[in-house]
Amino acid sequence: MTLKTTLRFSIYVAGVYVAFMMFGLAQERVHSVGWGPEGERFRYPIFLITIQSICNAIIAGTCLMWVAVFKKLTTEAPLGNTVRLGAPWWAFAVTGLSVITSMLCSNAALSHVDYPTQVLAKSCKMVAVMAAAIILVRKRYPKAQYAAVAVLTLGIFMFSFFRKKGAAGSDSSLLGVLLLLASLTCDGITATLQDKFVASHRPSALQLMLSINIFSVVYGVAAVTITGQLATALKYISEADRGLIVAIMAFGMTSGVGQIFLFGLIRDFGSLSATITTTTRKFFTILLSVLLYGHSIPMASWAGVVLVFVGLAFNIFQKKKPKPTIPAGFPKPGTVDVSEINPFPDPYSSATSMAPSLAGSRRGSVGSDLSTMKDDSDLESVVSLAFSDPQSLNSSGY
């Protein structure tokens, strides 16, 4: 890579690391600190998710408008081509519902499990994606990918089984695990839906981000209004320490900014670089959370962490194996009906099929002389004339 390309790649990676690591720390800080007058914790996940969706939508919309104005100034392209949805509204509406449900379950799980458990579980999102694709669209995967899933499952089991029990009881821990499973299920449904309508309508990354977050905001506002969390959350915030507002805003803004860097990494350097970056970022997020918040993780659980990331890396690299290339001029597999191929072609029928094309070539002079040939020498001159001109062969379709 050139120096300029290396610098751009480094900026994207640094942006993903810094933004999402700060996002994770802000998320844990919102849930783990007693902000209330009597030390009570923040217990309003729907309100928090709505704030996150609003921040994501604002950042995506701002970037889209900037891109639209830039295109207008440089290419005079209509603004509507850039800021439109890019796909039917109902596709984003259904996807937005699964997205906000996943975020709701994930954030609610933090009230019952600590952040490293949540991060490690969310690192196994591909397990849910594979399961949803198999169940919903009957997709099949290579055996190597199933092996990667088995390694991931073993790593999760080791991490959870050997962890020391936290302050919450077994019921609370079980509820947290169930919420994480529900979140992963919604992640799988989201990925399957997105693959369907993105392949059909090809919206841009920013269009996808903005549209899904708009519907997430609509669902979030409706949910906090129906459940009454809007009034209670605002009352709690008004009585809580001022640091809570800072933590909530940091939570929302780092989420949106991190997605922008991630989309840039995918656009310029491909999904493999983006996946490796986000996977290693999750590992360092666990380390940072353990160091800052003093989570106890025994050596056996660290072995589970290693297995999880080994499984993730194995799945990533085996999916990116280079496929055998087809030489130029050869048909692609599945495009030729072998039942129509005659292994013993009739040379006379081939010559006959070429006759009309040959007759019409060479400015029509050959065709006019075919009917008046008097001897073999005339036939030889016609054939040599036809095969000496490449255009005559091209016109026959061979």
Automatic annotation (TrEMBL):
The keyword DNA-binding does not apply. The keyword Transmembrane helix applies. One of its GO terms (cellular component) is Golgi membrane. It comes from the Eukaryota. One of its GO terms (molecular function) is UDP-galactose transmembrane transporter activity. Residues 347-374 are annotated as: Disordered. It is found in: Endoplasmic reticulum membrane. The chain crosses the membrane at residues 6-26, 46-69, 89-110, 144-162, 174-193, 205-231, 243-266, 286-314. Keywords: Endoplasmic reticulum, Membrane, Transmembrane, Transmembrane helix, Transport. Pfam families: UAA. It is a multi-pass membrane protein. Belongs to the nucleotide-sugar transporter family. SLC35B subfamily. This is UAA transporter.
